[in-house]
């Protein structure tokens, strides 16, 4: 679950947007996460990930066989808290959608399918979070713009519904991927993925979600931080109250390739998988906490980055915790 926040100028409280995955219920033991575990008053908005587009026809389909049951369970949360807003996230590679969106008839079918899907399953909004594999493909950029434009035209059929965009932490290729001038005013909010600026795909360790620009960040890299990415979107005329910053409830792990254990130590790929999530280079927050209880791990605060990291032997973990998350909320309040 990712917690996101935004500066709400129209209300006394901040929006707290929570992200729930449809695969977390398949984890074993204490890591198994069910919809019934959600406090319906903890989040103002929930984004459920995710649905995708059919490979054979322009229709939205669920990912997991039991997603429809999840939808029913989500609707029960709204009975307890009628003010709760729940959106379905559309995921997958943008190219899967481009093949339909470049043809007007199929684009119309796809948009009608999204509207039907939302209405049938009780969603208040749709969050568009498509994966760009090749940022240099102009067809994909046009397709995303078309999708948002066509959905916006149909908002009269979706009373009080929301259209949101989850934007990847692009810095160098931002304008190659998003037509911000056209879509910025059409979406209700933009969920900024203000994390994964660095990770085990790099050749040295790095803080994956630094709050501010660091002296070692030069040129375009100077924007690879929460403050920098927010300022970049603001410079493109997106109102501050439309931007939601992301706070990751997980960590990224590196395998060290030398005896160095400091920030920017040489790394050689992802660290060991967690006991529950079983994914190299990724650890849920509860897995990080579990490791932190052992004296074998050294925990270090980086005051400049406003972030923690932990190290033990050849393992190095950058992660978010209550301290660093609180600073980000305060930064954007």
Automatic annotation (TrEMBL):
Gene3D superfamilies: 3.10.50.10, Glycosidases. SUPFAM superfamilies: (Trans)glycosidases, Chitinase insertion domain. The keyword Disulfide bond applies. The lineage of its organism: Eukaryota, Metazoa, Spiralia, Gnathifera, Rotifera. Residues 14-333 form the GH18 domain. Pfam families: Glyco_hydro_18 (PF00704). This is GH18 domain-containing protein. It comes from the Eukaryota. Keywords: Disulfide bond. GO terms for molecular function: chitin binding; chitinase activity. Coiled coil: none annotated. PROSITE patterns: GH18_2 (PS51910).
């Amino acid at each position: 679950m990712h917690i996101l926040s935004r500066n709400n100028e129209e209300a006394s409280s901040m929006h707290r947007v929570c992200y729930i995955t449809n695969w977390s219920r398949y984890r074993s033991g204490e890591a198994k996460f069910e919809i019934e575990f959600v406090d319906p008053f903890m989040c103002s908005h929930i984004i459920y990930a995710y649905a995708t587009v059919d490979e054979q026809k322009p229709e939205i389909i669920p990912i997991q066989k039991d997603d429809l049951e999840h939808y029913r369970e989500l609707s029960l949360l709204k009975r307890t808290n009628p003010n709760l807003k729940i959106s379905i996230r559309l995921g997958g590679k943008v190219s899967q959608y481009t093949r339909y969106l470049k043809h007007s008839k199929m684009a119309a079918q796809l948009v009608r399918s999204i509207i039907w899907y939302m209405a049938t399953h009780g969603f208040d909004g749709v969050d568009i979070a498509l994966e760009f594999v090749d940022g240099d493909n102009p067809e994909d950029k046009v397709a995303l713009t078309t999708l948002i434009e066509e959905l916006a035209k149909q908002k009269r059929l979706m009373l009080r519904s929301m259209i949101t965009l989850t934007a990847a932490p692009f810095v160098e290729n931002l304008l190659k991927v998003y037509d911000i001038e056209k879509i910025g005013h059409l979406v209700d909010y933009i969920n900024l993925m203000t994390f994964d600026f660095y990770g085990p795909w790099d050749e040295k360790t790095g803080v994956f979600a630094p709050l501010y620009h660091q002296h070692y960040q030069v040129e375009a890299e100077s924007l690879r931080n929460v403050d920098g990415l927010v300022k970049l979107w603001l410079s493109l005329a997106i109102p501050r109250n439309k931007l939601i910053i992301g706070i990751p409830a997980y960590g990224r792990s590196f395998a060290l390739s030398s005896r160095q254990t400091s920030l920017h130590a040489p790394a050689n790929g992802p660290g060991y998988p967690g006991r529950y999530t079983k994914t190299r280079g990724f650890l849920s927050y509860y897995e990080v906490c579990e490791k932190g209880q052992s004296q074998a791990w050294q925990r270090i605060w980086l005051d400049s980055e406003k972030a923690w990291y932990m190290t033990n032997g050849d393992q190095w973990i950058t992660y978010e915790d209550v301290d660093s998350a609180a600073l980000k909320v305060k930064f954007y309040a």
